[in-house]
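Re: beginner question about structure tokens

> Can someone show what the tokenized structure looks like for a real chain? I only ever see the sequence side.

Sure, here's an example I had lying around. Input first:
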Amino acid sequence: MPATPWTSPSPPPSPSAEPGPSRRRARLLVCALAALSCAAAAVAAPVPSRLGDDDLRREIGRRLREGDLAPARELIEEALRRRPDDPLLHYNAACVAARLADTAAALDAVRAAVEHGYDDARGLRGDPDLAALRADPVFTGLIGDLERRLAAAAAGRALRPRWGDWFDPGPLVEADGSASPLRLSLMVDDLGWHLRAAGEPAPVLELTLAAPDSGDAYDTARVWRFGFEAQSATTVGRALAQPGRLLDLTVLELAPAWRDVDGRRVLQADIPWSYLQPYAPPADTLFGVAVALQRRDADGRTRTAQLVPDPRRADPRPGPRRYVPLTLPPGGERPRLQVKVGSTVVGTKPLDFTIAVWAPGGGAGRLIAGIGDTAGHELVASGGTGGRVTLAPGLTTWTRTADLAALAMGPYRLEAVLELDDGTRLSWYTGLARFYQDWFGDAHDGTKFLAEVDRPAVDYRLDLIRTDLSERDRRADPSSLLMTVFEVEDCLRRGADGASVLADGGVTVTALDAGGDGWLPVRVALPPAGADASAPVLLLLEPGGAAAARVFDALTPLTMEGGAFAVALPSLRGDLGRWNPAASAEAAAVVDWLPRALPGRRVLLVGFGAETARLDELQRAQPGIVAGVFRDASPVAAADAARSLAAWAKASTP
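And the corresponding structure tokens:
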């Protein structure tokens, strides 16, 4: 290589050190390999300034995915020279700097991201890439300032609509800041929520309704999301999500309808109050609303206009959503009864609850409230609640207490009934769960009777119960919590009797420690008792689990009937159906674990949403376990896919 200002020529070798022909060939080979390595490095690390914008963006993404932080930082710096006002680039620069332990640069980049419009305060707090900054007062101060601005903006949008009157929630705003031509109006009345949209011939709308706590300043996880589509004469309404749970269910009564209103053609959707239970006036008056419109532009790109800009709107998973705050003063012509409980899970402390009655014309009657069992037998009366009451015109409330300390752990219900003198009868109830914390100690003591392979199933459920108790909506129905408690007790009872949790037959949810965060749940459908104990396990793999879960449900009855194979479905923690390294590692752990959980069985791989190369890697890594790979896994209908897989499993049996 010729000498340059950055290199110095090597001194010539001394005559006594002159290498022979073989050494010269070796040196030439080393030089050639070095040249090839330099060339390969040049290909692997393109000069940032020579890349086009699209190539630069792709290269940044690739480097970040592969963890090549130093090259990624150079690429991001080049992108910022071209687009210095891009908040996401500043945010990426902060993440890379924090992971490289450059705290000062990371803080500067966070500040720049916020100044240029990045406003996902929850993302800043929770991003693991920024974990090194969480204890820094400058970082926490930046987030605190951002949260105060978001709260002030939400307060500035707050509305106080009148009961039963249509109101304008505000314009929908496009990503470029322009106003959408769609015009919205909303109304809340005795029946529920009503949405009207005008100005779009075939709108695709998402409506978010929220019931925030008083401490939810600008977003809340207590949201219900609905989708409405109108294509020509066909309209579709869907329940997309409820607090903590994805649904995506097509519901006939939610289908919107075209109407003529004041000479305009508008699309109207109606959501009954029952979808938001237990939240409803007159006990609840603080709500929220958000609306998003999706449409395709002339270039075929999907554009979204939002009532409230929300960085998490595109993520379908349950989680916090932003909203326009609404205060709904009680109204309407019909009397209504609603109860607000402090929590539907009751421990040793008494249960506090508020009874609210809306009576537009006043009146009198008999009010009864108390705690009963699921068969309707009253067990605990709430002091001072039964007897004659007089209702002033408008809203009347009572605060009451019930003590459940003497009741055994299990399901109960709180009920309130108002019988007015004019013959009107109003009633309300909710499920309750009596639960005591000592139960966890008893459950852990019971795990000593379990086989090693069965213990993860119980530990997994115990984790679910702890999470439910700490993160659940305090007023939500507790039946799922109690169901998990009963499953734990059933597993412990069978374990104490010497039975195996997995060998019980039917569909069983177990779990294994696949590394990473917590237990990995696995659903297993076993052939009936007496079937071939060496039948293979058909392992369905898909990050996100949507298609695989449907096929699993369709395969289960075939498994029970035929007995020629078992079927297993792990809930791989992929990101929205993407096959990432974490999901790949979890799939490998399941492949290794299944033959130990079900001795003598080999595994047949089926990949939904998985690249064929991923399945081949699993088979090469475990040739003694994986007996075959199904390579045509794109199910159109779950039933058809199940039949094809069942036939393949039987044909592939060793």
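Each token stands for a local structural state, so reading them left to right follows the chain. The first strand starts at residue 183 and ends at 188.
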